[in-house]
Amino acid sequence: MNPSLLPSTLERPTPRIIRNFLVRNFGDLGDAAPPVREWLVEGLIPMGTVTFLSGDGGLGKTLLGQQLIMAAALGEAWCGRPTRQVRSVALFCEDDADEIHRRAASIARHHFTKVTDPRLKATAFLCELGEDNALMRAAAPHEGAPAFRTTMMYDTIKDWAHRRQARLVLLDSLHDIFAGNENYRPEARAFVQALTALARDINGAVVVAAHPSLTGLDRGSGTSGSTAWNNAVRSRLYLTRPEGEDDDVRVLKTVKANYGRIGETILLRRKGGVFVVREARDKRRRGFDANAVARS
Fold first, then answer.
1. Would residue 91 count as lying in a domain?
2. Which residue has the higher pLDDT, 103 or 7?
3. Which of 18, 29, 159, 182 is the most buried (most CB within 10 A)?
4. Residue 212 maps to which CATH number?
């Protein structure tokens, strides 16, 4: 028989690569109590995932974000809620260092301290105004390669957070760090997944300031572009200015809370260069009670 006609010489299909999974079942979980859910800010910002802080331009998202990282460094309350004391890193894309300094002085006074407080060394920030701060870009087509890839800036933030042992990453704002099409669902979802991977990697929280689309403003939902943004994140806070109030009043509302209660509102007033809780200005809750979270 002609060897060239043997079946063994026929072209064989390339074997498929099978993905390995870590398979679990409920019986293996045992009788031990499940781990208590961790919060950065009780009821508002969970650990291990991404939280969007959305709101129209000029309402004070950056100020609230800066208050968050400083409250976390000091172990003080944020928007009237207990805040876990953690180290953090922040990327500010819209303000220079002088503006951050002015805000920091006001926030420190609000907490009855100074910017020289040693505890505030637990946070560090970059002011990259006018720079290319994209954390993900569409990749060149290549078989087997992901359609979207994280950038060197993403790797830099991740490495920086690791070296500082930070459990909070603040990114201000979305339109500076996302270089894709916000209306394209796969791209929006891939970006949120990359940020979620960062949150899990540092065992902490990633908080992103975001501007809503015109539709999101009109509907009062605070969403931006594709519905993938809202569907992919586990927590989303929306900052608005209520009608009939003066220009210094804001409402912070939980419009998505997979691990907490949706629809909660906190009334804030801008006073002395910071936002303070309007309903309970004299009730300052300090520290973090993990047992209280476990009971909730």
1. yes
2. 103
3. 182
4. 3.40.50.300
Contact 47, 54 (CB under 8 A): no
Structure tokens at 126: 């970059």
Calculate the alpha carbon distances from 112 to 32, 105, 107 in Å: 43, 11, 9
Asked whether residue 62 is domain-assigned, the answer is: yes
Average pLDDT over residues 106-122: 97
Residues β-bridged to residue 266: 252
For residue 20, the model assigns a pLDDT of: 83
Residue 260 included in any domain: yes
Distance, in Å, from the CA atom of 43 to the CA atom of 292, rounded to the nearest integer, reads: 11
- ∠ Cα 131 159 117 (to 5°): 85
CA torsion through residues 154, 50, 113, 99, sign: positive
Of all residues in the chain, the percent with pLDDT exceeding 70 is 81
pLDDT the model gives residue 215: 47
The answer for residues whose C-beta is within 8 angstroms of residue 257's C-beta and 6 or more apart is: 43, 44, 235, 236, 264
In a domain, 18, yes or no: no
Domain interval for residue 196: 37-295
Domain count within the chain: 1
**pTM of this prediction?**
0.82
30 vs 289: which has the higher pLDDT: 30
Nearest partner of 132 among 185, 91, 188, 183, judged by Cα = 91
With beta carbons less than 8 A apart as the criterion, state whether 148 and 190 touch. yes
Residue 68: the pLDDT is: 98
